[in-house]
Design brief:
By secondary structure, the protein is mainly alpha-helical. It is built from five helices and two strands. A two-stranded antiparallel ribbon has the order 1-2. The protein is elongated and about 80 Å long. The chain starts with a helix and ends in a 5-residue tail after the last strand.
């Protein structure tokens, strides 16, 4: 590489910002992993084992959250269409 490239301030700014992004990404990764590992599973234990939110597919979970899924007393479920 030509020596003039290393004496250009833009080169050092680009290298510094790139290094900063790498360090911030590494720190964010470490913090997120630490938080996820330290959370107790109390929220999972509070849900019943047959909860559709834990046991269902993503589409079923969406229906439950949108209020479209109805669970019958016998344990079966059906989806109701709602008018907008």
């Amino acid at each position: 590489m030509p020596a003039s490239l290393w004496s250009d301030p833009g080169t050092w700014i680009a290298l510094g910002i790139s290094a900063l992004f790498l360090v911030v990404g590494w720190v964010m990764h470490r913090v997120i992993v630490k938080v996820l590992k330290s959370q107790p599973d109390a929220a999972l234990e509070a849900q019943p084992a047959d909860s559709p939110i834990l046991a269902g597919s993503p589409s079923m979970t969406t229906d439950v959250l949108m209020g479209n899924s109805v669970t019958e007393p016998d344990g079966s479920s059906r989806t109701e269409r709602t008018r907008a």
